[in-house]
Amino acid sequence: SYVLTQPPSVSVAPGKTARITCGGNNIGSKSVHWYQQKPGQAPVLVIYYDSDRPSGIPERFSGSNSGNTATLTISRVEAGDEADYYCQVWDSSSDHREVFGGGTKLTVL
Amino acid sequence: QITLKESGPTLVKPTQTLTLTCTFSGFSLSTSGVGVGWIRQPPGKALEWLALIYWDDDKRYSPSLKSRLTITKDTSKNQVVLTMTNMDPVDTATYYCAHSPAAAENWFDPWGQGTLVTVSS
Questions:
Q1: Torsions phi, psi of B25, nearest 5?
Q2: CA–CA distance from A34 to each of A99, A109, B13 (Å)?
Q3: 3-state SS track over A21-33
Q4: Is the Cβ pair B108, A42 closer than 8 Å?
Q5: Euclidean distance between CA atoms B63 and B43, whole angstroms
Q6: Any CB–CB contact under 8 A between A15 and chain B?
Q7: For residue B116, which residues of chain A lie inside 8 Å, CB to CB?
Q8: B25-67: pLDDT as tens digits
């Protein structure tokens, strides 16, 4: 089965850049989607198709995907960005299923 | 505007069957490429995908839970129903339904507010 690996936590000072990685075997060949989840709330899509932003998501959020690592980058981090972030792919192998990473807690110092 | 809302019991006993309904608006599940998925999240833990149903009634299930899950749709009522048999305390979680706008890539946007299901005797 396909596994996505995220660091449990990332810390960043306000105004700096946060990078959250999502590792998977040849993940660069798949489309990666990212979600933000704040405490007590449902997840919100922030990046789809590796690097596309849904309407309403600030340009500070960007994504990239190559090789075995996809990255969510948050520029000029704000206190309101503190949340859990999850990556997700569609595993088109024999069992065809969605896969979520284990999540990364972003702490704004 | 697309909205989804989950409904069902908040408490089920071990071995019972859970039935959850997702009622949505703002899109049609008869539109090509559209799907609705179910995802759950145990307290303090990560998201886990459960099932997905497409506009053409194609269905996908989590391999680890496939034997216990059934997903169906009622296009006329704008509803998707998920049943999970033989519930166990480890199935205690918040259950979300979500809109999937693009078959084959299957991102979820937006999500319902979620419903907390507790499994306890």
A1: -145, 160
A2: 12, 22, 34
A3: EEECCCHHHCCEE
A4: no
A5: 22
A6: no
A7: none
A8: 999 999 999 999 999 999 999 999 999 999 999 999 999 999 9
